[in-house]
Amino acid sequence: MKNLLELRNLHVQIGTMDGGKVFPLQGIDLIVGENEAVGLVGESGSGKSMTLRAILRMLPRGGQQTEGQITLNGNRLDDAASNVFEKVRGRQISMIFQDPVSALSPLLSIGDQISDVYRYNMGATKTEGWQRALDLLGALSITGAEKVARRYPHQMSGGMAQRINIAMALVCEPQMLLADEPTTGLDVTTQMQVLELLSDQMRKRDASLLFVSHDLRVVGKICEKVGVMYGGVLMEFGTSNDIFVSPRHPYTQRLLECARIDVDDELKSIPGSVPKLDRIHGLCPFRNRCNRKLEVCNHEMPPIALLDNNHISRCHHN
Ligand SMILES: Nc1ncnc2c1ncn2[C@@H]1O[C@H](COP(=O)(O)OP(=O)(O)O)[C@@H](O)[C@H]1O
Ligand SMILES: [Mg+2]
Fold first, then answer.
1. pLDDT tens digit string along 180-196?
2. CA of 95 to the centre of ligand 2 (A)
3. In 3, 146, 217, 275, which residue has its Cα 20 to 30 A from 223's Cα atom?
4. CB 124 within 8 A of CB 118
5. What CATH number labels 3-92+175-313?
């Protein structure tokens, strides 16, 4: 399988208002292949959103990529000297955000918003853009496309607004879709419908997906590979089967245990809290919460171990 999106040793640093620094990404290596759906999971604050923001150059104020490379189809996206990024954003890579209503402009009708994205990127006319919007709404099984296209975001339910965001992300047929918790604010039934739509469209269009969620079950449903992040570090990566059935990293194992207990309505989380990111760890970021900690964990950052068939884990136990 051909690699589509590649992150190599990605480091991000943010300068804070008080003159301090935060290091939310500390050397992320991640590959998304063609026609592949990859999930990114991990507790809140582990760097999932920051990873997507780095790819799309949407880092918070004071943030910058300090090391590493980001490539799409072998072309550097993070090279400030070239204009590759401007050319591919929207056309080859696009993103679906967590809050569907605020991701839309309140001032434009749905049809105009979809049409404008198409016109801006593809140089189409107003008529072509509007037709494209209607076609797409139809393709997403949105009934009464004509009527919906004339509505405004505040007149939509969250589920419908997220379908519109999916339409906007797909309008130029990108190969690579990024999605950051796209169904988190929706009720369970709508959540499943929107996920099915996303997954279905991605496969129909031969696109790839990098899907961020704190919900392991959702990721298990739609992704064939999964990365587990913690403290700005990729702890484990493998097929959904590797991660959900035979996880090797203690962090992944604890995360799954907690998700399983959560099924019985007894909400549980891993004791302790996520590490401060005010320095480069140098050691395993999970060591102080880990119930399988070894003496060596106090002295050495575990290397990335290749277990088998691209299943990797960053732990001294491997
Ligand atoms: N604007 C910001 N300034 C400083 N630190 C930030 C900012 N935004 C996020 N962070 C820090 O970056 C880390 C990763 O955040 P994020 O990628 O949003 O986590 P996740 O999406 O996994 O919940 C967090 O520890 C957070 O505190
Ligand atoms: Mg996030």
1. 999 988 999 999 999 99
2. 13
3. 275
4. yes
5. 3.40.50.300
